[in-house]
Amino acid sequence: MKIQKTFLILAFVLAALTVMLGAFGAHGLKAKITPEQLKTYETGISYQFYHTFALIITAILMNKVESSMFTYAAFAFLFGIVCFSGSLYLLSTREVLGLTNWKWLGPITPIGGVAFIVGWILLAVGVMRG
Prior knowledge:
The chain is built from 4 helices and no strands. By secondary structure, it is mainly alpha-helical. It has one domain (3-129).
């Protein structure tokens, strides 16, 4: 299977997962976490959706423009989703999940943010070189 197709499939699965997580946050978590924690959770949802679309765009560009930068960008977006959004989900629900001792989650979020930035820069470089 071409890597572009793999990234598209992953993006579509991530999009469906984002909708499910968003619905769970709006309906299942609203009464269990504070408004501030819910806002943090929703930030994770937003950034996951933005970068799922970035992953779709990246996979489409892979078919149009010849550049290895797009593969690196796709991996950066995936890594960013896991680190940025994933850490926000866990940070906002750690009391509910019994993970209050997981203090190391906070520093993971900016690592994911840097991965998002790197992904966007790699897309620009890929277009410039292609």
